[in-house]
């Protein structure tokens, strides 16, 4: 079975680092990014190793950029100017869609990588078992205790 979306490295470059930004272009990129995230969520195992590596590199680069460890994704002056223009014009919906789609793609790739890790299921099983064991040892909260706990939280 093949993946419904063919990964084009040029499009990945556009998704991660658009050269010029306008509201309609961001919407197109957001839709492409969202479609790619859905494909990763549902069909990661059908991506070729090269496609998986490309997406992993994209995600690691974006994480490194957010942590300030890499200059790869620093937006160009033109990109920053375009983003400022979008903000000035109040067209933030397309920017929000784009950022949400990028976040979904990042989470989808990281989740897929975790699931592929051979120790993932073993570790998750142990974590769930430990949590269940701990919850059995902890006495249940009474309704009065819950009200006392909830009051400071809701203030």
Q: Give the averaged pLDDT, no decimals.
A: 77
Number of β-strand runs: 0
The largest β sheet comes out as: none
Strand content: under 5%
What is Rg? Answer: 21 Å
Query: What is the straight-line distance between the termini?
Result: 54 Å
User: Helicity, in percent?
Assistant: over 70%
Continuous helix count:
7
Uncertain residue ranges: none
Bulk shape: flat
Q: What structural class should be given to the helix and strand makeup? A: mainly alpha
What are the secondary-structure elements, in order, as H or E? HHHHHHH
Essential attributes:
mainly alpha, flat
Would you write up a description of this structure?
- The chain is mainly α and 155 residues long.
- 74% of the residues lie in helices and 0% in strands.
- The protein is built from 7 helices and no strands.
- Helix 2 (23-43) packs parallel to helix 5 (92-116).
- The longest helix has 25 residues, at 92-116.
- The chain is flat, with a radius of gyration of 21 Å.
Map the helices and strands.
Layout lengths: L8 H8 L6 H21 L5 H18 L10 H13 L2 H25 L3 H18 L5 H12 L1
How would you summarize what this structure contains?
The protein is an all-alpha fold and 155 residues long.
């Amino acid at each position: 079975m093949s993946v419904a979306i063919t990964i084009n490295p040029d499009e990945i470059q556009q998704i991660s680092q658009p050269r010029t930004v306008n509201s309609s272009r961001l919407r197109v990129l957001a839709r492409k990014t969202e479609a790619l995230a859905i494909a990763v969520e549902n069909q990661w195992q059908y991506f070729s190793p090269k496609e998986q590596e490309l997406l992993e590199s994209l995600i690691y680069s974006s994480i490194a950029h957010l942590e300030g460890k890499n200059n790869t994704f620093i937006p160009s002056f033109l990109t920053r100017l375009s983003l400022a223009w979008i903000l000035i014009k109040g067209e933030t919906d397309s920017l929000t869609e784009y950022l949400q789609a990028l976040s979904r793609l990042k989470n989808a790739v990281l989740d897929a990588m975790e699931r592929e890790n051979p120790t993932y299921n073993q570790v998750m099983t142990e974590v769930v078992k430990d949590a269940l064991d701990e919850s059995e040892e902890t006495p249940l909260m009474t309704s009065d205790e819950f009200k006392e706990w909830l009051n400071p939280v809701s203030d």
